[in-house]
Amino acid sequence: MNGARWLRVMVGIGVGAIAGVALYLFAQEWVLALVVGAIVADVVYALLARWQTGDWAPLRFAAGLVVFAAVALGGIALVGDFGEASDVDPDTFINAKAANTWALILTVAMVAGAIVYFGLELLQTGRLASLASQFTTRTYLLMVIGIAVNIILGQTVAAALKIPIYLDSIGTILVGILAGPIAGALTGGLANVLWSYVIPPPFQYQPAAAFAITAVAIGVIAGLLGRAGFLRPRPDRSTGELLIGGLVTVVLVGAMAAAAVIGYQYIFETDVSLLPSTEGVEWYFVALAWLALALVVGAILGLFALLLLRRDLTAAYVVVAGVFTGVIAALISAPIAAGVFGGVTSSGTDFLVAAFRQAGLDVQAATTGQGLISDPIDKVTTFFTVYLILQAMANRFKARFPQGEQVLPVDEGAGA
Amino acid sequence: MPAFIGTPGPSAFHRLNPVTKLVLALVTTLLAIVVGGVIGPVLVAAVAVLLPAAAARILGRLLHTSLVLSLPIAISVLVVNLFFYPAGVDVLLQLGPIRATAEGLAFAIETLARIGAISGAITLFYLTTPSGELVTDLERRGVAPRIAFVTHASVQTVPAMVERAAAIIEAQRARGLDTEGGILRRARGVLPLAGPMLLGSIAEIEERTQALEARGFSRPGRRTLLWEPADSGRQRALRWALLLTVPLLIGLRAGGWLGWLG
Amino acid sequence: MLTLETVTYRYAGAPRPSLFDVSVDLRGGEVVGLAGPSEAGKTTLCLVASGLAPRTVGGTISGRLLLDGEDVSARPMHELVGRVGIAFASPATQLTGVAGTVYEEVAFGPMNLGLPRSEVLERTGEALAALRIEHLAARDPVRLSGGQQQLVAIAGLLALRPAHLVLDEPTAQLDPAGSRMVARALTDLAASGAGILVAEQKTDLLASVCHRVLVVHEGRLVFDGPAVEVLHDTRMHELGVAAPSAARLARAAADRRLSGAVRERLSVAIAADASRGGEAASAGGRA
Predict the structure, then answer these.
(1) Residues near B252 by Cβ (< 8 Å), separated by ≥ 6?
(2) Which of A132, A181, A322, B50 could form a disulfide with A220 if both were Cys (CB 3.0 to 4.6 A apart)?
(3) Does pLDDT of A407 surpass 80?
(4) What's the pTM value of the predicted model, to 2 decimals?
(5) Total structural domains in chain C?
(6) Nearest-10 Cα torsion for A184, A186, A191, A196
(7) Which residue of B lies nearest to C94 if distances are taken between CA atoms?
């Protein structure tokens, strides 16, 4: 990133933080403050970009983001009693209305944001270059591989290895990074739908289609992170840079985890806890919970070790990307899992759900707790795997993909 | 046109337009969720899954496949809910600290009925619709040819990749790779193969891109189809009727007239 | 007629061009061979001649590609496929992966062009007949032999009715039987009027089908002449091009000072054997 871009990012974050804190002090609403702060940061960045470089695209994106957030928040406010007792079946604790409504609100918000973004582009330039450029013949062929890998690996993990991760998004994220957000979204969505309805046994996994919306969101996020150069190799950095990177990562990960838990409690007005109260719970369930947490910490530490070994700062970016994507995916999937499947999807995550249920949490909270542990681990592993795959591909072939330039190492003199 | 292009299915149900069959599967899934209780999904399954399967003479195959597919999830649902149901009070069985409750059992059965109906609906669709047929029909209706291509190619690539992996494993076995042993050991053995196989597939993308481009793949607009699955006005009406049953039953449920389905 | 006019081409991100000032003429009905060691630029030349470079693979080009006199630099790839087709070394990666039968595989190109269905059927039938593979029409392309798959790939190109065909080492992954199939197909196609450019390491193949041979060395064209002359030239060895077996046997016979009559009978036997499509190996038994 060159100096001007760093400036824009810093100013954007600064102004966004001020706006967020101000809103919190004024309205005492955590989630609102966070979301508004992020939006303000992006708008400021986009305005600076337009002023400095004359590029309209970041502003169009900011507009789409604003619409997305407005529709999502508006939808939540409109529905109001998301998790109220009146809609929760007292025998099953399932709030099917919450599950379906949540997915519906998110879908509508994403579509609205996309319409605004592409609509603006069409009006301003008369074409949809940002959409068309993502879809070259090369992209389509990569999508085929991506979908196949999603299904094969996902099925192997779900059916044969009862471990609490999914590994069904490697293809989605690979396509997102190399080709773009919409290509990634399409890969994820198509893969899940095909996995349920069209792929023959033994590879068929019928619950998959219900989570198509999660896969779409993952694809979009991966595409945007790829465009921002998150997975660009940054080898041979100084120890100081590496330590700062490590510190920033820990802070961000902690903040995201906290925001996820608090935000979820706020929206659904239920209690979700990563660490359920251990009173009255059998000792082995407590041990299970601690084991799960140890896995999370272990994965992050493992990546830090790699960071120090190869002196590649991108490992920090991988962790942040993975946790961010994982948290979003968990928040989207949990109500769906709870509402449609009672929290059980026959994968290895079930025992975690059982552990939380035993601790007295309702189904929704249980699946969210499970998700908030499994998903970040899964996505960090996935982003890491994608990074390794990218390392193994020849530079001249990566460059031919629409976002291929953003995964090539920068020549010396250009900074992070 | 050669005879082997676009052969029609063996029964009237097979010969339905693939979108009709898809709508049936989707509507059945939604209805199984909307209509709660235990009897509800069973009734839905009887009408929308078992009856057509019998008419298509694949009832046996459908039951077998559907059961095999839903077995893992059924076991999980049963175990998790039987023993870990929070609102469970009426204890049936006590195995040390783990309690099986009647409420848990009831909930499990309800979930199983729903999952069974959904599984049956999806299996019926997949057993009566070759993948090429659905993709071709979607393309005829306006889905972008290149998206249709991706769908079709992905469905072919999954078994192809697995065959390739199996071939590699066979070769490795001849060189002494341990393929016996538990799932975990085998998975560990497969993992080092997964990398090179995946990278090999990715490396092929460049050549495949060139080959496809040399056949005019990137030409914008629609392409000619060699054959098309038949459709009719009656099927169109049927699809609409099916779709309308969903809001109808949601309304009935909200109005409380479905309580007898328990 | 296909013409490359002083083309210099550099791949994206490469420090040096892969082709320098290359000029080639390809006329209908002639088979032109392209020889040279690996990494000399044969593949790059094929990609440029077919239009894939720079359209699909990126890179920068100076000089022009002319088809029947027209400068096609501004035309997108899908407008060129009906005028020049390109086949590659690996039979399996040229399969589309979405065709259940050879028929659908061959029809893929015309289908993409949006031609009326009757024309698609007509062209597919013609292409299968031209390569004499009608009997494979109902087969699954994935289950064919390498040679058969290569013929299917070429048929798929023929269905687009290009006036020129470029083939980049089409027999590289084939056994001798497969190579013979392809060689015969090329001869038939040239006879029906197509201009064919075929790059090969197997100089025996080039010797048996080509009228003219070009030699590429480090990105430049260093030889352009009649096949027999170029391939038997003693300088080929320094350029990394193996001489055809016939030439090597003739030289070996000369080195051992076999009598003129014996050498004469040797040459006749080799020529007869080569024209039967086999490889000249059993000369010893006939001497």
Answers:
(1) B258
(2) A181
(3) yes
(4) 0.82
(5) 2
(6) 150
(7) B211
